[in-house]
Amino acid sequence: MSLTLNLLLNGIALGSLIFLIAVGLSLIFGLMGVLNFAHGAIFIWGSYAGLAAFNASGSFLIGIIAGTVAGIVIGWVMERLFIRPFYGNHVAQILLTLGLMIVLTEGLKYFWGPNLLGFDKPAALTGVVDVLSDPFPIYRIFMIGIGLLVLVGVHLLLSRTRYGIIIRAGVQDPEMVQALGINVRRVFSLVFALGAGLAAFGGVIAGPSFGSITPDLGMANQLNAFIVIVIGGIGNFPGAALGSLLIGIVQTFMAFYLPDVAVAVSVAMMALVLIWKPEGILSVRR
Amino acid sequence: MRSKLFNNNWLLAALLIVLALVPFLSSSKFLLTMLITVFILAVYGMSYDLLLGYTGIVSFGHTIFFGLGAYSVGILLTKTKQPNMLWVALLIAIVGAALIGLVIGILSLRVKDVYFSMITLAFAELFYIFAEKWSSFTGGSDGIPYIRVPSFFNDRTQFYFTALAFLALMYLMLRRVVHSPFGRTLQAIRENEQRVESLGYNVLHYKLASIVISGCVAAMSGGLWTVLQKYVNTSVFGMDRTIEALLMTIVGGVGTLFGAVLGAGVITFAHEWFSSLSTQYPLFERWLMFFGILYIVIVMFFPKGILGTILDKWTQKQGGSRNAASDSKRSKSIL
Q1: Which domain range does residue B98 map to?
Q2: What does pTM read for this prediction?
Q3: CA separation, residue B125 to residues A219, A264, B64, B98, B249 (Å)
Q4: Which residues in chain B touch residue A90, judged by CB atoms under 8 angstroms apart?
């Protein structure tokens, strides 16, 4: 396997991870107009909760379930208590979610300490497998698989189910959906919990690939997700997928060839999209 | 009406006199240093209030400007070994802040306001990384230690009066700005952007001007911060520094200018107090969590902060119930 292919696969694995965070953020923003600055904190809470359950039970699957449930619970509580009273008030929402980010991150530091915590790969996913007669980590392949699974799952949810239709209609015009007799608020809660659950799920999946986790990883990964939704267009599901892939691949190549400017390149790409097509690369002007 | 109490120049003059008397009443170097810290951070907080409280846009990268000031003073004083280059460094910082404010503003305000919060956050991260990687200039994560500042600032009392004068001057300047026709337009944009636009104002230009002014003021406070610390490292571009501006403004009172001064005092002294408590109770090492909770409570239930809430009570006591009513309606839309 050539170096380029290796980097490409690594990039796709990173992109899958970013996608897990970005898709929830993008849907929540598209549907409810809430830019959730605590999304990264939920991601890393998923990581910690997953690690705790993984260590306690020895089963990675239980870790994944525990982390995801933690995210869904945090998201649901957050929406009910903090977001719901402030629909339509963007400034208050931004300020509130940032406050929640502070409290969630500091809470992690209080319970688990601010230092690195080792997160081992589950035994079944350790080691390498031959891709085109060259070794490649199994876990990266697992990540790509999970990314594809979520991509297809969310796509089916959005395009084939009644809820998906309501969500897509809600992104376009929430008032109209409400007028048709659908309880949009309940859909809001569901999407918020779903988005938070996906982020936390991503957190558990990401944990072993980081090798060790710290509470500050939440913010760093949230930034990537922000850049992705600016590039892909807010509320645009295919845009989020394409943007994640793009950022994942570009960052991996940059980290290899020009490690010093890897992050700068993502920000530069975001700036370029803002100049050239501020509504996102895949969006059509409505 | 709410600003009437603090339009009251007598009250402010009295406060200024009390603060000016502090060095004569107490020789505690520690107290003076704490107060200098409060004054410098208060200017930083007020600059943030111009954006958040008066223009209604949320920046999560305000520390870019603060850090720019801090680093340009740190770098220039060490590279030239000329402490008196301080003024040139401050000038460079102001010009740099204006340019960067323009670039970030033009990039992000073309879309929706929420983009601004997101994009400023991304840019702050970018500056943080630059400061870390470009170590020949910035000293990397070790920072620049032992910065030689003009000997004038080595005398605590002289520095104290300079910082106090700086705060007073910036307060008067910013108050002038927010009460000018320009400032009124900013507040109108905060209240109802579409209406201002339909009246023929170029909203983008007004917002850009607000970002530039606020950035220049923050850069100056960052420069003085380096003079006080004699040390600068990447933390000046950190998320915590932006959160600090946010906390000071929100806790003190959004859209009051003076609230940021109050907030700076509360945060600085409480931080110090929590740090001293943390030796006994480890819970207080997570002092930011307490501020986070306080901040959430204020945003949810007292959207006007300490000062705004007190002012409301005060106007109600004065029997100005009609004014208070219209007032509360007015400031509701800030948060």
Answers
A1: 4-330
A2: 0.88
A3: 10, 9, 9, 19, 22
A4: 113-114
